[in-house]
Amino acid sequence: MPLPRTATTFAPPVMEARRWLDGATFPDHRPLMNVSQAAPVDPPPRALREVIAETALTNDAAHLYGPVLGLPELRAELAERWSKSYGGRIDSEQVCITSGCNQAFAAAISTLTGEGDEVILPTPWYFNHKMWLDMAGVTSIALPTGADLLPDPDQAAALITDRTRAIALVTPNNPGGVEYPSELVRAFLDLCRRHKIALIIDETYRDFDSRTGAPHDLFQDPDWHDTLIHLYSFSKAYRLTGHRVGAMVASQARLAEVEKFLDTVAICPNQIGQYAALWGMHNLSQWLAGERAEILDRRAAIQDGFPRLAEQGWRLMGLGGYFAYVEHPFDLPSNQLGPELVRRAGILLLPGTMFMPEHDRDGARQLRIAFANLDRAGIGQLFTRLTGASF
After folding, report:
1. Mean per-residue pLDDT for 282-297?
2. pLDDT for 371-390, tens place per residue?
């Protein structure tokens, strides 16, 4: 008998890691450092919270079903912003709002694939992408990356079969942190177009890219919509993780298919969250610039402080967005090292095995550190604990 859909994949990694905390105690001089999840822990800025409260109190429509593809005003604002920032043309009818970026990915895959089809994912991969493909009956084809964690289009080309429906990229990358060069992203668009498959680009962390200007030029291609599906999240930009507001940019024809998926799963995205995201786009540009500067400073702190770990055999593989991806020096595999770091060092992070195919040995040597919730002092304390760890 076939397995139920949910039984075809693994337990949610962040929830699995949190179970390592059961029964653990953390003394006052060494409180828990949670660098496992890539999400802001602070609430939205007060001005935005006041808008959320006012919306809840005075906007009756915010409590009702809204348009399946999202508020027209928010769709139009994102289309206008992206057109300017990427130097291309995006129409509001090519934008939809989703209940978080994960739902955008799920919706895109549902419009692309049937049972037994294939999607190529660079490894280390974002585990929720892998989980959804498993539950959708779609085969994930691993595209190993090199020491620089950048996927190779030529290697990807060799993996394409008559069942391949898409290649999915995340930049800045989760879990690796690396920012994909514009010319690399363009090479993947060209590859996908030649093979008449989709290129999905998840840019959840685009607001914290270290580069100035557009990270790629794909929207400058007048025919971008024949191949590209672009995903975005408002969660990290405006600290709206609990409100679940994401977006997809794709052809109008594809969004007609996406609408079927969204209508049956959530009917509409969170209305209050959408109004919050719209207000944030209108009013929080300077505040967001400050958030980006702070994240880039924490990234620099990782870079500055890492030689302490390098002396003990650690290797920094990738850095950017919210993440540092590292290779550890211990004989213990990372899925055993993770729980031990909780007990011995008060550090909760994710092992590389959670981002790799089951039998890939590289994951046993790797760890992901989500540093966005540690300031410079916290990063220094993290390195102190790691340098003092022995196994």
Report:
1. 96
2. 988 999 999 999 999 998 87
pLDDT at position 310 is: 96
Residue 133, Cβ neighbours under 10 Å: how many? Answer: 26
> What are the backbone dihedrals phi and psi of residue 251, each rounded to the nearest 5 degrees, phi first?
-65, 155
* Residue closest to 98 by CA, chosen among 250, 280, 274, 282: 274
Domain range for 343 is 5-43+287-387
38 pLDDT band, cuts 50/70/90, is: confident
Q: Residue 81 has which token pair? A: 């912003």
Sign of CA dihedral 233, 303, 380, 343: positive
Q: What's the CATH code of the domain at 362?
A: 3.90.1150.10
On whether both 20 and 159 belong to a single domain, the answer is no
Beta carbons within 10 angstroms of residue 111's beta carbon? 20
Q: State the pLDDT confidence band at 1, using cuts at 50, 70 and 90.
A: confident
Q: Is the pTM of this model over 0.90?
A: yes
Instruction: Verify that 69 and 186 share a domain, yes or no.
Output: yes
CA-to-CA distance for 140 and 316, rounded, in angstroms?
27
Q: 283, 306, 326 — which closes off a domain?
A: 283
276 in the same domain as 308: no
Whether the CB-CB separation of 176 and 323 falls below 8 Å is answered with: yes
Alpha-carbon dihedral sign for residues 140, 69, 170, 161:
positive
> How far is CA 76 from its chain centroid?
23
* Amino acid at the residue 124: P
Question: Are 275 and 332 in a shared domain?
Answer: no
* pLDDT given at position 47: 97
